[in-house]
Protein 1
Amino acid sequence: MNIARVALDLPLHRLFDYLIDGLGPAEPGLRIRVPFGRSEKIGIIVSLPGHSDLAPEQLKPALEILADTPPLPPDFFQLCEFASSYYQAALGEVLLQALPPGLKKASPAKRRNTKAKAAGKGVEPGPPRLTAEQERVLAAVNHSSGYAPFLLHGVTGSGKTEVYLRLITAALERGQQALLLVPEINLTPQLEARIRQRFPSVPTAILHSELAEAAREREWKAAFLGQARIIVGTRLAIFTPLPELGLIVVDEEHDASYKQQDGMRYSARDLAIYRASLGKLPIVLGSATPSLESWAHAQTGRYTLLSLEERAVSAARLPAIHLVDTRRMALSEGVSPPLQDAIRKRLEAKEQSLIFLNRRGYAPVLGCTACGWVSRCQRCAANMVVHLKDQRLRCHHCGFELRIPRACPTCGNQDIHPFGRGTQRLEAWLTETFPTARILRVDRDSAKSKKQWEALLQQIHDGSGAERVDILVGTQMLAKGHDFPRLTLVGAVGADAALFAADWRAPERLFAQLMQVAGRAGRAELPGEVIIQTEYPEHPLYAALRAHDYPSYAATLLTERRQAGFPPYTFQAMLRAEAPQMADAIDFLKAAVALILPENHPEVLLYDPVPMRLSRLWSLERAQLLVESASRPSLQAFLATWREGLETIKSPSRLRWHLEVDPLEF
Ligand code: ADP
Ligand code: ZN
Ligand code: ZN
């Protein structure tokens, strides 16, 4: 009697045995089609145990062993087992989420031949001569051996990407595959183009969640079969089995999009570190504003710190950053006279300006001054945002929409107003104030698809004559990794809001955003200027920004975190529950607390259950419970036992809960 022990995509922490007599050769790592309930599922064979604890009559025969790909390799299992235990997720869920959707279908579509794209026409501009700083970084990584984690801290425009390309070249020359993780591929079409241009004949796989199913399967297979030598992908690409992996690069390693926000809430950056240690590989985490977690590791020597302090193009200096104190100034639609003057000067010089406001829509809320009504979402504890262009009120959390009412829905007052300011409102004001300027708004409303975004980028880039763009208005979409050669002015409006936000990570994020967006100015020969409007010009965040001094600001924040007992000096997990009634969510969390005797876990601290800040979403009430420990192993041990207990709590049928390890948002 031959038996396969199979992982299935279920939130159950167990495996399933099936009979496989007569199905041909079986091997761990092959996919298998099995009956499950009244339907069928695709699973992964984890082992061939020889016998089962189940009585023979309880064992069902499997239907088919799928051998259209080689078996998934042992290091793939190790990575998934680690993720499963670290994030308290069922192994089956982890293993199956790692496969492209097409390989998980019980009735497989006809598979086509797989060949990685070796595209990239056009002339390759000879790679530039490296600067001395770049040479040093390259040598450090290329001369490392075994597991070697590096943090590459380089100001914007210092040539980090160029370094990645050279590291990839070296890996290819050693006959190895290189994995480059990027935060959001759609935001960086330029990077993809640069890789294809530099390596026109090297098969490259691109992996992200927005690929069509067939393309995703094709790219994944090319990577897994070793045909693709360069793999560029978003967080999900960290799970791709790569037989000859020799290098991992994590670009913009501080970016929050490395964190998966539903299902298994993993950090692709942290898994990349584990994967490098497992495979005894060099790994480079790169950023102009590293996460404090990585920066702290670089300070203790756990990661080797490498720095690029100069811009790579010798003429390109870092932009001068000016603060404009707006406390005693008359602003027009939030824009100060100095910023207006600066924009005007750029218009005269035919240079480009970028006004950064990290809030899309026309205004964040519509309100009635007579009765105090505000445009709340019916489903969420949030305001509906005014979108004047299409006359809609729209909830940015759940997508709920209404037509903008003509009068106040509660008192009938016709005098209702949008309060506050978003990118559309700023755009409208700029259009009025600078009637001859060509103005382009860039946010998730104007760049919904990859195509739209690429078209906008193209326009920003090389528009000339009547097509040229004079003023860009946009959200952080504009902050990421683009070279805009004619951009010489960046203005930041409304940044202060994040200084005093309830989320203690907000200043870290604000600093990174402003540094990134400031880094867009003056990338080519033209010098850049950055104007930040603030009512808190003496705030240390702005002082560090003016000095382009990430290290000193990071040191300040780390001191604060140590004193407050926040990560990276403590380790956290969050238990969240949602239900139609808040009381049910809170009761579940209370029951979770009652599961444990504090004296059995002296090193772990459980906070009180509280409603989440966005306490209602999609008509569900949400509450959370923070767990904290100064010791990661203690926290891990605690979570493993706790999770088993959580599964036994009786709760109303519409209650959902999940556990998140290393939460980023509160
Ligand atoms: P980062 O990724 O740090 O923002 P990039 O690698 O994109 O920096 O480099 C910024 C600009 O400098 C790009 O236009 C790039 O082509 C150029 N560059 C990079 N390295 C060099 C070099 N050694 N010599 C000349 N130009 C360079
Ligand atoms: Zn009213
Ligand atoms: Zn909503």
Note: Residues 132-308 form a domain with the Rossmann fold fold (CATH 3.40.50.300).
Protein 2
Amino acid sequence: MQSEIAPTISAELRQRFASASRVVVLTGAGVSAESGVPTFRGGGNTSVWKGMPFDVISSGQMLERDLPAVWEWFDYRRELMQSVKPNPAHVAIANWQRRFPELTVVTQNIDGLHQKAGSRGVIELHGNIWRARCVTCEMTIDLTEHRRNACVGCGDNLRPDVVLFGEMLPPGAYERAATAASTCELCFVVGTSALVYPAANIPAIAKMGSGYVVEINPEKTPLSSFCDEVLSGKAGDILPVLGDDV
Ligand code: BV8
């Protein structure tokens, strides 16, 4: 039964969903919106911090200039995320792991909610807010278990293990995501404004291969006109229906 909250899913997508083996899901902040994690460009309380736009406070330059300010910003966001839980969108994507022989989850998010929902092998293009990394020896610690004092390895400062604007992505992360996209049959783009690169390249790479690209977002984005199918609505409404429907 087609849920009244989900838009019409085309016969083509139903057929592809039923027969696909290699699937890529690229997610952005919108997939966590229904968990209560503020998005960045929706004007929420993480789009500006102490008068600074988020791509200023979350930049490599700011980290060089004022590490304590960057820690204050990330401590605030970790506090906001303490009690958030995966929503039906994360759970549906985690369930797809059993459905598709090769499912690759690529996320721009740093909240760890895909892993909490049970997804494995998640490619975190922008790192993870629950980890800290030594600025010198790059040793990482889990901030859910340790306080962020000095590095236990070499004693130098720790920084959030998150990719800030102007910084390179984790070695190999983008390449693994691009490789999966280049050979996928289906690529879902869920809850992203598709403004940040190189993550926003992933759907184009899927399209250049044999990927059928499906956007799931309540709003239009720069990607919408390029996608094979756009399902306008919330990820938490649409993703669970997609699976049941076919
Ligand atoms: C790089 C971690 C190579 C931090 C993030 C100058 C110098 C250097 C680089 C650049 C430069 N100028 C431009 C660049 C490239 C730059 C870039 O792309 N800038 C943009 C702004 C133009 N990229 C980089 O810097 C990257 N590195 O290029 O390295 C390099 C290096 C040095 C020199 C040259 C080249 C690094 C980018 C990573 C930045 N870190 N996050 C933190 O979180 O604080 S990015 C940040 O934006 C988040 O990760 C976020 O995920 C990401 C993208 O945003 P979205 O996820 O799309 O979220 P947004 O709020 O925008 O949209 C939410 C969407 O969800 C909306 O469409 C909404 O409609 C929808 N939605 C809402 N509710 C729902 C929903 N959808 C479904 N269901 C719902 N319920």
Note: The pocket of BV8 is lined by residues 28-30, 33-34, 39-42, 55, 58, 108-110, 126, 162-168, 191-193, 195-198, 216-219, 221, 234-236 (CB under 6 Å).
Protein 3
Amino acid sequence: MLVDYHGTVVQKILQNPPSQGALSSVTAGCVGAQAICPAYDRRQLAAGIVHLGLGAFHRAHQAVYTEQTVASGDLRWGIIGVSLRDARVPQTLAAQDCLYSVTERHGDQARTRVVGVLRAALHAPTQLEPVLAALGRRSTAVVTITVTEKGYSQNPSSGELDLNDAAVRHDLTQPRMPRSTLGVLAEGIRRRPSGAPLTVMCCDNMAANGDTLRTLLAQYARETDASLARRIESDIAFPNSMVDRIVPAATAESLEYAAERLGLRDAAAIVCEPFTQWVIEDRFAGPRPAWEDTGALLTGDVRPYQAMKLRLLNGAHSAIAYAGQLCGLESVSDAMADSLVGPFVRRLMLEDLCATVAPPPGYDVQAYCRDLLRRFENPALAHRTQQIAMDGTQKVPVRWLPALRESLAAGIERPLLERALAAWLHYLERERSDAGNALHISDPGAAALAERLRQAPSPQRAAAAALAHAPVFGAEPYPPAFAARIARHLTRLREGGMAALLAHD
Ligand code: CS2
């Protein structure tokens, strides 16, 4: 419950706002004086948006843009939030009337906002009917999605629908009782009245994320209902989007910090960085919130923004994660302050990754990189390397491999990126830090790749076996000279860990 230290339930105050003036004075006494609170009548909020994937990222990103839209008077855009798997977040939110706080923090600077735009928090496995009903309602005009890369049942290297995915297999036999993201979406869309315009926007870190979702959803629908597949392809808009904000998972300390600022306990509190960016392809089927008035950029082509962000931010993040895990560095800011990993990451970004990016028109990519490095150094965020290291078999094909493939095709070596790749393989194979501590790897696709690495009798064979693992690396073979360089890096890692890998140019 979002309850103050004296037992006042703030939701009651926010649900029954006296008048705007009185509300701010009431909340100022009740929620920490610095916090911004919803100054609109939440009872009047319609639910024009359904969001799938109710994690911290959505609540700190799209929900905050929408909160500001609603705060400026357009009450159509309340959000029905849906968790497709985990029951804890919807339970926590439902218990505090879907109110939660977002604290933006850099160094000593902080700003806290209570977000009121969530109308409901549902758990699809146990509340499937209300979820499907919400998707099927004419008044739902926009569906946004953050279910992480693995939530789309996609084969990461081919980009095709993975028909062996357990949830998809289930849904194809019981399409009216779906479990997967695609199954839930397809069934919700099937229930919509004809002619009710819908826009479905993927907000996950994938290249051409909207186009990809459209292809996967149509592939899925074709397996069960050809007319639904046609409807998906012709009637629904799938704009591409690029989202950016660093939002670490909550910790006991971050919850405590938020509680101090609010003067309230908020079990769903988020502490994240102040920076936020949202670039949206302006391709909607029907009405949408005026997100451009609250900081989003609506544009005709999102692809250059996506490539820049995926390669420079996420690409560097993954390198920080694996190098950091191997070196026993818990957070991104620890890694940036480390005398071995910090310089490696800076060079990786400024030399290797930057050279593969064609920035969007008018963008100064060097300035973008400098900002990124400053964001990574933010000491106020406990952004754990272990969190970013998750699901590497989904992330690496998006963040590193396109840049590597393009460079290899042009005959260019990327010595730092190639080292990062070797460090990831070593991390998967060993499951131990350089100091010998066990590492926890959370990546359903990793076991098969790790097995190949462990079975190989030599680093040369290990590199070849890994690069031939098509679900991650694709079907096209890599040049032998590249495989030989990866093998050399693996040898160094086996001999002396990251220190040995980075000691040689
Ligand atoms: C991170 C991203 O966990 C990860 O893989 O790289 O979540 C990253 O923090 C966001 O994309 C930043 O916008």
Note: The radius of gyration is 23 Å.
Protein 4
Amino acid sequence: MKKIAVLTSGGDAPGMNAAVRAVVRKGIYEGLEVAAVYNGYQGLIEGKIVPMELGSVGDIIHRGGTMLRSARCAAFETEAGRVKALEQLKKHEIDGVIVIGGDGSFRGAYELTKLGIPCVGVPATIDNDINGTKFTIGFDTALNTVIDAIDKIRDTATSHERTFIVEVMGRDAGDLALWAGIAGGAETILIPEEKSDVDDIVERLESGTGRGKKHSIIIVAEGIMSGNELATMLKDKANIDTHVSVLGHIQRGGSPSARDRVIASQFGARAVEAIKENHSGVAIGMQNHKVIDYDLQSVFENSEQLDLSMYELSKQLSI
Ligand code: ADP
């Protein structure tokens, strides 16, 4: 292993830059040559590959998004596309690739590994939905962005004695909604992994009102239904008026939190060690506060269960 490349792919997440910096700096520290691929797998196919130096990643640790840009690339999902990427890697004499992204990007890395190019996946997505790791880069920052929004919404909810629905990101995974709901003291949390009954939500809201509660906050992950759909259901079912706030893409941006910068640094550095040790086809992750590497394939085969104790806790604390 003499020369490695790093790329960011799929949905961007705060902390990707810190991971890129860690890969470049640790790679050079380990005596490797490091190149960067711009625009994810699309850039790999097009040969947008440039050599990196220590200074190339200066002044990015605190920036959101990704300096390498990200892209979604349908061509890479075809054998022909991946063969083109392989040709570019050969041309640039690259022996291994570190892919920073979500589980879609990991599938791409897995396919590339099968073509004989060792790849290592570094998990970065605000959804925190990659099997085998407790945390992904970007989740903590997004969570803090949501909490900040909930706190502000709470001020107006209290002042005007209103019920607010806050829609957060999470197509298949409710981690962001669940953690934000607990940290933000929400009355009700709706997540894709758990069925929610409108009657039950109405009952909880009405029992709160019965106890003299003047305002409520409901967090809904976009994957179960939209905030506006829920508002309509509550109006139709029980004539409950709500205000809807859709947080949208602000959740993906912003300066990464200290925690995301640190795990991005740890994951990026471990990825370099793994690739240098020829641990090909692995993902980097965190379990029991330790940085680990594990089989990339297991990311697609296992499906992580939601931490039900967290969901239970949220219900117990919002009676
Ligand atoms: P994320 O990495 O955030 O989950 P996507 O699911 O959009 O984002 O995947 C990012 C990119 O990874 C895709 O645009 C595609 O280039 C590549 N990819 C996804 N699935 C596969 C697959 N099965 N085989 C090869 N490449 C894939």
Note: The chain has two domains: 3-138+256-301, 142-252.
